[in-house]
Amino acid sequence: MPVNHPEQLRLLLESVNTIALVGASDKPHRPSHEVMAYLQGRGYRVIPVNPKLAGQTLLGETVCASLSALPEPVDMVELFLAPERTDPVIDEAIRLNIPTIWMQIGVINEAGAARAEAAGLTVVMDRCPKQDIPRLGVTIRSRAGA
């Protein structure tokens, strides 16, 4: 069962340091771009993932082609993808043992969530951290290396 209890969400968001944002866009008006900038402003390290933009710089971070190409371990994968495109990324996150998968509002994949949870990952589905952080009063601790 995906995490949706407010206290669980708050604790999760306060424990995360580094996020891989899959479906990152270089277009400032796109929600993934707005959310990435917001999360960076709140002290998270956000590494953009988009095979079409790989190697480019987005909001000061080099875009990676896939989760496997990430330069360091991440605490969470945030999915800005159509639900039918999430299975390969969920399976890659499971293989890499990334602790949390967060599916953005409108991104619902019950079977993928069940696979991830069966593998021991935490799953948040159909939510937006940009909305949840202020709503839940999430306090961001200082980040290592920040």
TrEMBL record:
It comes from the Bacteria. SUPFAM superfamilies: NAD(P)-binding Rossmann-fold domains. Residues 12-107 form the CoA-binding domain. It comes from Marinobacter profundi. Pfam families: CoA_binding_2 (PF13380). This is CoA-binding domain-containing protein.
